[in-house]
Amino acid sequence: MSSAAPPHERAAPTATEGAGAALPPQSPPPPPPPPSAHTLVVRGNLQRDLFRLGVVPCAAVALALTGWFTHNRLQTLEAAFDAEGQAVARQVAAMSDLSLYAGDVPALQNVANAALRGGQVTRVEISNSAGVYVTAGPKTASLAQLRMFTSPVTLREASRASAFAPAGSTAAGDTPIGLVQTFRDTTAYTRERSRSLIAGIGIALVALIAAWASVRHMARTVARPLRRVSRTVAALEAGHFEVRCDVVEGGTRGTHELAVLAHDIDRLAERLQRNRQISEERVREATAVALQRMAEAEQAALSRARFLAAASHDLRQPLHAMGLFIDGLLPGASPAQRPAVLRLQESTEFMGVLLDDLLEISRLDAQVLTPAIAKVPLAELFDQLDAQHAAAAVEARVRLRWSDRGLAVRSDAAMLRRIVGNLVTNALRHAPEGGTVLVAARRSASGVRIEVRDNGVGIAPIHQGRIFEEFYQVANTERDRRRGFGLGLAICARIATLLGTRITVRSALQAGSTFAFTLPAARLADVTPPQPPALAPAPLAGLRCLVVDDDPAILDGSRALLEQWGCQVECVSTGAEAIARLGTGDIHYDAVLCDLQLAGDGDGVDVIDAAKRLQPEALAVLVSGATGPEVLQRLRHGGVMLLTKPVAPAKLRALLTTRRQIMV
Fold first, then answer.
1. What would the mean pLDDT of 537-555 be, rounded to a whole number?
2. How many CB atoms lie within 10 A of CB 148?
């Protein structure tokens, strides 16, 4: 069976004879599993097995037959050589009986010479006991090359005439009267024997070579298709479904089993290739759909971010003005108006907290916050948080316990305070009356583990995977703003990621909850002692401020609040006017408060840059309600101080007081 394929049937050119179809490189096959008690162990390869199966029997038969025929031939040569030598000896004995009996030496010499002329022997000796001794032929040959044949000389019936017998002779019938010895040279015999051995060995070698060639051809005929089939299967296993066996039927008598196997594997490869094409087409379609949906999701996320940024800005503008007016109205409100103004201030604060949380998430998503890693003693941190939450714990009738164990961590103190404080707030909110909230720190293999535990109602497993999502609250379906907005845990999760850790939760219904995270440990001896408390705020009388905003309500509210604090205020609505005021040099401002988005194409950053350039001693602050990631990243790269609307009057007063202290 030929292993070559017609040109139009080949998928790839083949290599030299005996090599398989051209296949792509493939990884080595995995090691076979260890054999079990019922496993058939196969060693070697098919071609070697075929050699053993074909050559060994042929070699054994050839050697046996050659040895048998050669042995018979040598025995025949041996028998013929001995028979000829013995026949010459008998013939000489028969011809020399009368001459030896009569003692006729010349006649005996003639008989011996006549035997030599026949060429079958090289030397003849005739002798008897009466002293007659006749020889013919040279005695120069080595005895090792001669073989001797003897024959007794007896009288024939016609020769027994006692009248002619010499004195002392007897006619005793078959009694030998002498001895004939003939010698044959074995050189020719040895040469013929050697030729016979060489001929036998040659015949054996020819038989072995013929058997080897025949078996080799048969082995290649069987092994080459099998090798191609094996390589094709390996290529299919590696995922190259375009490879084929390229084995065709070479004869016309029946169907070869190897060709059937190769055709079956080719059909399997074609089916696998079709299935892969179908799978790839489905994967491409699914990928296209996924990419389309991903693009839609990204577009929706961008739209939501733009909407939140615009809504945040649009909401912060009036809320900022409202807070300024409310803070200005509160000192002069009558007793009848004061409860309404306080309720209005509370609502404004709730809206401010919501917008601040949204801003915090935007800042974390925009990755504009960089943690200031330092050594933080947990005792000091827990004391600050205890002072912050002690009143809320007493109001909720919950025991708040702290256990720092004298440990310290490496982290950002403000971010860590935000995480633990938020977790404590949640625990106090969900702990039952008379319950306990425990904030504990303990060493672990990877650092210091901080845990916040409560014995409240717990969280069902179905909710534990979503409590860190924005606006997701388990037990606040009525959306009571006093119970939070569902952003605290989302902010904590993002801050924890920024600090290189992750908050885990372990909870069960009616068994309480435990929130925990791990931070790197620090030695308490290396912690820097706390700074002394800041000086009391100084009065703001005489502080000259420039307020830039395109919203008249914000300008009026800012003017009223700052003048109430004793500041000298100038308000402008455009960036060009503000830059002109800064560049005159006649008035030196102590603080410049500018909005980001001004009327027209005005940009508050340009005003801040001009203030830093023209009046570098002035406190330049950007006041904006825009909280988009792009805006935050831009302000961070520009090193601009930002106050986010709505600005709490106390926060603004503290900032201006800091400026006054620096001036003093």
1. 82
2. 14
